[in-house]
Structure formats: C-alpha cells, structure tokens
Specification:
The protein has 260 residues and is α+β, with helices and mostly antiparallel strands. It is built from two helices and twelve strands; from the N terminus they run ααββββββββββββ. β7 and β8 form a beta hairpin.
C-alpha cells in the first residue's frame, strides 16, 4: 500500500512539473516514466474493481448456489424414489411369478431392523396385524424362505430368520434324482447347518436345499440354499452339512408375508 501511494505521488509530481514548466524534456521524461506507472495503476484499478464487484456479487452468488443445491437435492430424492419403485416392482413381479401357481395371498413389507433377543435375534418389519399379519405366518422373498413370524403388533411384526438360534426347518437335499430329508438349524445367529441326514445319503457341495413341508409349519418347495460342505465324519450316524443360504440379511430390504 505504501508503494502504491509513493508511485501515485511521483506521478502527480511529474504531471504538475510538466504543466508548470512546460519543458519538453521534462514532459518526455515524465511520459517515459509515467506510462508504465499509469498502466500499472490502471491494472491495479481493474483488479481492485474486480474484487469489489466480486464482493458485491457474493450474496447473489450465495443465493444462486443455495437454489442450485436445493434443485440437486430434489432431483436426487426423485431418483431415489424412482429406483425404490423400480426395485419394488421388480420384487413384486418376481414374487408373482414364484407364487403364480400357489394361489397364496402375501403382504409386502420392508425390513427395518434386527432385534437382539440375547440368545437369538428377530428381524423387524414395518407391517403388522393391521395388514393381516399374525404369528406363525411364513416370510419369503422371491420364493426364498426368510423365516417365520413369532411376534406381531398393530404396526410391526418380528420374524425368526432361518439363521437365528432356535430356528428349525424341515428340508430336503436334492442330489440328482435322489432326495435326502433333513433339518436346518440356525447357529450363533449367523450360520446355518443341516442335520439329521442319513449317513448313506449321497450329497455333494452345491446340491439344492428346499423346504420339505413336513410338520405342516412351512410349505414345501421354498428355496433355502445350497450345500456348502460336509461338517461331519464318516463314523457319525448322521451327516451334518453346512448350508449356504439363498440370501444375505445385509442385502434384504423387502420381504413378503404369506397371510393366506
């Protein structure tokens, strides 16, 4: 800033001297000296003017930015709604195809949480008795067995998933033309094993596992998963298998409750 005032003072001094004394030499010298100084001052003036204009325009820019931000948020929300609707329609179409020949009435619900029961866990969904959901009803997704409703209130229901401790489902393991009857059980609220399989049953990793319908609690033909491997030894009476379930809880957002 001090330098700016010094240059301005010198410029005024030269211009005054050239007018008072009218010396061509002084005028020529003044022009040669003042021209670059004047140009520099002009550039400084332009820069200063730009800064001032920018400062003045900040409120307007801020308002425009806020307006654009709100539009972006609105568009993102619309995209999320469209994606959610698309996924829901896809699930509905898939479920209708699976249950097309079963003539069963279902209620679509969203998974909203996991309730820790200490020893076991329950999946919480956002539909309850007001939607016709009651204890004992089966929960599926795309023909895949998720679990069974064990608690329900007006607005929510609690589902015992097949991986939870205490869950037991009669199944059959399909190996080519052969079928072996067994029982799937939840372990540690994270794993599923298949037990009570006769030792002489021929089973390989990758064999299909579906519900058998025995006992009348679960309908037959629901997809449970595939054999992941054999856990037992040949000396045991029954085979014990590891099940790879047909779904993962982390990716489960919507389910169907069979209410009829």
């Amino acid at each position: 800033m001090k330098r700016y005032y010094t240059l301005l003072f010198i410029s005024i001094l030269f211009m005054t001297a050239s007018r008072v004394f009218s010396f061509d030499g002084i005028r020529s010298l003044g022009q040669s000296v003042l021209s670059p100084i004047s140009f520099g001052l002009y550039r400084i003036g332009l820069a200063t003017s730009g800064v001032v204009d920018f400062a003045v325009s900040i409120p307007s820019v801020y308002q425009d930015n806020n307006a654009l931000g709100e539009k972006v948020i609105s568009l993102e929300e619309q995209l999320i709604d469209l994606q959610s609707t698309k996924e829901e329609n896809s699930i509905l179409r898939q479920q209708l195809n699976v249950l097309g020949d079963r003539d069963e009435k279902t209620v679509l619900a969203s998974v909203i949480g996991l309730n820790d029961q200490g020893r076991s866990v329950l999946v919480v969904i956002n539909e309850g008795k007001r939607s016709g959901i009651n204890i004992g009803q089966i929960v599926v997704n795309g023909g895949r067995l998720i679990g069974r409703v064990v608690e329900a209130n007006a607005n929510n229901a609690f589902v015992l998933p097949i991986f939870a401790v205490g869950s037991k489902v009669p199944v059959q393991v399909i190996h080519g033309e052969q079928k072996a009857i067994g029982l799937i059980e939840g372990e540690f609220n994270s794993k599923i094993v298949i037990s009570d399989i006769l030792q002489e049953s021929e089973i390989n990793a990758g064999d299909l596992v579906i519900t058998s319908g025995e006992g009348g609690v679960y309908p037959s033909g629901l997809y449970v998963g595939r054999v992941g491997g054999i856990l037992s030894s040949d000396s045991e009476i029954f085979k014990r298998l590891r099940l790879v379930p047909s779904w993962e809880f982390a990716g489960m957002h919507t389910v169907f409750v069979i209410v009829d």
